Amino acid sequence: MTDPLRAGFGQRLAESVRARGALCVGIDPHPSLLHAWDLDETPRSLERFAMTAVEALAGEVAVLKPQSAFFEVYGSAGIAVLEKTIREARQAGALVLLDIKRGDIGSTMAAYAMAYLDEHAPLAADAITVSPYLGYGSLAPAIGIAEQTGRGVFVLARTSNPEGAGLQRSIHGSGDSVAQYIVDSAAETNADAEPMGHVGVVAGATIGADELDFSRLNGPILAPGLGAQGATVQSLRALFGAALPNVLPATARDVLRHGPTVDGLRAAAHKVRDEVSALLRD
User: Fold this and answer.
1) Can you spell out the DSSP letters for 233-280?
2) Which of 16, 31, 25, 67 lies closest to 227, judged by CA?
3) How far is the C-alpha of 29 from the C-alpha of 71, rounded, in Å?
4) Minimal CA–CA distance to 255: which of 26, 17, 19, 20?
5) For this structure, is 101 an active site residue?
6) Measured between alpha carbons, how far is 24 from 251 in angstroms, rounded to an integer?
7) Cβ contacts of residue 257 below 8 Å, gap of 6+?
């Protein structure tokens, strides 16, 4: 299960961001994007889409984030493409964050953790997204295996979709919002980690400023919502403040719509990455 030579995910992510800039690009083979690339909805087209994205981006950006659902709809053929996507993206030097949003209890959560975080799992990624809405403690198997294997988890805290606000902004028994409770729970897991811990949170780039206090988190913040969902690079400073150096902005359609050429995808990713880098320098 364990690779003793692999550094912790927090360190690996920090090194990747330092080398390639702070950007996560989703690989989301949504039917509308397939059609925009003049591709049909078949496993063969799915593979062409994913491999083009990997060729264009895996050597350029810090993190690639395949959305598992868009592969799963093709059954076993789609899962085979997902395995190949993860493998080839990692071989090209990108960290792979598999967007699966799994969450369960007991042995079932442990099985999910083994499927995506175990050293020898065919679908093993560098990190996965997880849902804490069966209780943050239910994520212990994933958090534990991720730590043992130098991988990470990103816990949904305050997501960019408007439907999430009612639940995530409601008051937890701690007296804080549910979202803040999740951030604080991740902070406890990450305490004393250097340069940061392996448990990140998902906080959409479209949420309100000052909704969450990230000062104790000591972990990465995945911030989806750039571009198509309305967030801009310039809005990140007001939203995240002093936590900005740990923010990993995420975009998908705003880059993928520039396909199907490798040059088009690469240029679009470079543009966003350079805007983020300029913001961090300022």
Assistant:
1) TTHHHHHHGGGGGGEEEEESHHHHTT-SSHHHHHHHHHHHHHHHHHHH
2) 25
3) 8
4) 26
5) yes
6) 6
7) 33, 36, 268
Whole-number Å distance between alpha carbons of 158 and 205: 10
Which position has the token pair 């967030």? Answer: 231
Per-residue pLDDT averaged across 151-170, rounded? 93
CB count in 10 Å sphere of residue 176: 15
Whether the full predicted model's pTM is greater than 0.85, yes or no, is: yes
Q: Length of the chain in residues, anyone? A: 282
The Cα 257–Cα 196 span in angstroms is: 33
Task: Summarize pLDDT for 88-133 with one digit per residue, the tens.
Answer: 999 999 999 999 999 999 999 999 999 999 999 999 999 999 999 9
- Check 65, 84, 101, 271 and give the catalytic one: 101
Asked whether the beta carbons of 97 and 222 are under 8 A apart, the reply is yes
Instruction: Determine contact, residues 124/114, Cβ cutoff 8 Å.
Output: no
Tokens representing 12 are 């690996």
